[in-house]
Amino acid sequence: MDINRVFAGLGGLFGAAGIAAYAAAAHSAEGHMATIAPILFIHAPAFLALSILAKVSRPAYFGAWLLVIGLLFFIGDLVSLDFAGHSLFPFAAPLGGSLLIFSWIVVAATAFKALDFKRLE
Questions:
Q1: Element (H, E) at 37
Q2: What is the per-residue pLDDT for 117?
Q3: CA trace torsion 90, 29, 43, 71 (10° rounding)
Q4: Domain ranges, residue 102
Q5: Using an 8 Å Cβ cutoff, are 74 and 93 in contact?
Q6: What is the pTM of this model?
Q7: What stretch of H or E contains 62?
Q8: ∠ CA 119-110-74 to the nearest 5 degrees?
Q9: CB-based contact 73:41 (threshold 8 Å)
Q10: Domain count of the fold of the chain
C-alpha cells in the first residue's frame, strides 16, 4: 500500500504526544494539558487515515498540511503558556483553532467528487 509517510509519522507522533499530555494532566490540575491531550489524541488516527487519502486526493493533502499548521499554532500556544508563561504570538491559539476548523472542512470536501482537484499521480 502506498502511503504518505510524513502524515503516518505525524499520526504516531501526535498519538505519543497525546498520551504524554494525558500523563502530565494526571499529575497536575493546573495548566492546559487536559485540553491538549484529547486534541492530539483525536488527530493521531486522523493522520493515519490521511496518510492514505492524501496520496489520491489534493484536498486531503492540502487539508492535512493545514491540520499540521493549525495543531502547531493551537497546541504550541497552550504549551507555551504553560511552560514559558507567554503566548507564541498574539492570537496564535485562535488562529490555530480557526485553521483546524477550516482544514477539517477541506478534508470533508474530499467526499465531493466535484471538489476533488484531480487525483494525485
A1: helix 33-53
A2: 55
A3: 10
A4: 5-115
A5: yes
A6: 0.86
A7: helix 58-83
A8: 115
A9: no
A10: 1
Greatest Cα pair distance in the chain: 49
Over residues 56-106, the pLDDT tens digits come to 888 889 999 999 999 999 999 999 999 999 999 999 999 999 999 999 999
In a domain, 121, yes or no: no
Domain assignment of residue 9, yes or no:
yes
The answer as to whether 36 is a domain residue is yes
| 43 and 50 Cβ atoms separated by less than 8 Å | no
Distance CA 49, CA 115 (A): 19
User: Under a CB-based contact definition with an 8 Å cutoff, are residues 53 and 60 in contact?
Assistant: yes
For residues 33-42, give the mean pLDDT: 94
Q: Do the domain assignments include residue 109?
A: yes
Identify the residue whose cell numbers are 496564535.
92
1 or 4: whose pLDDT is higher?
4
Cell of 83: 511552560
